[in-house]
Amino acid sequence: MKATSSLPAAALLVGAATWGVVWYPYRLLAQSGIDGIWASLFTYGTALVAGGLMFSRHWKTLWPLHPLALLLGISIGWSNLAYVMGVLEGEVMRVLLLFYLAPLWTVPIARIVLDERLDRNGYLVMALAFAGAMAMLWRPELGFPWPAARAEWLGLAAGLLFALGNVLVRRLEFLSDPAKSIVIWAGVTVAALIHLPGSKLGAEAAWAAAFDHAGLIAAIGGALVVLGLALQYGLSRLPANRAIVILLFELVVAAVASHYLAGEVLRVQDWIGGALIVTATVASGIGERRRAGSDVASKPGDGDEWDQWDEWDNSR
User: Which of 24, 99, 132, 261 has the largest CB neighbor count within 10 A?
Assistant: First the structure.
């Protein structure tokens, strides 16, 4: 059986759905006194240990560490840390609005790094998805989306670094998906360690709170392992500009989750924005299948993606 672009797209949808609800356990950790820096250290440290042991044979493929792999760890590491700190410190919707400018950054970065060029349909799909994101996130009372506080700058920086990291995942074709995931888990862990002096929470109190909530931290760490592997599988096999459209599905999941988990009310514009994002995701998939179908007659396939999936846990 041949795997088509639907399998990587499904992996990205799983990743987006996971990230769309993971904010809630982070909020629970914050309510228990564990700030964003310590929470990131504990959860991504758990993911690094668990995932690193599961895919131990992939460690050797990282040495010597390629400069682009190092840049991947730095970009996604600081992006995820900035995102967690931003949504915990500031106005969540404002931070999300700035973070989800990521599709705008993806277009020029993918053009420079991957030489990906959007056609007319690609620009229409990107515009549709971005319009949906803005419809869901826009709050007139928040004003023009320009950073005005530390949390908002964190949101903007997180989105820019997120876009760079997603493009680099596609660029690092010579690394396996688990290897790229290990780089990212390590990147967030190191970023959190570096920022520990900026935390107001002392080490003794942080570790005590962590032991009290070890089950929750372990659950988040496990979810991050699944999230990381799903994202690497999808991002490595789809054009960066299409991937960022699919990842906007996180907003739809986050809106529904916030309604049921945090009692937030879904507005008409949330439904409209969600419908636009879903439509853009479906349209991008249709366009990709049409391009793939037109390529079949002109050149042979590049190989069975199921074979690539089966080789995940094989040493290189």
Answer: 132
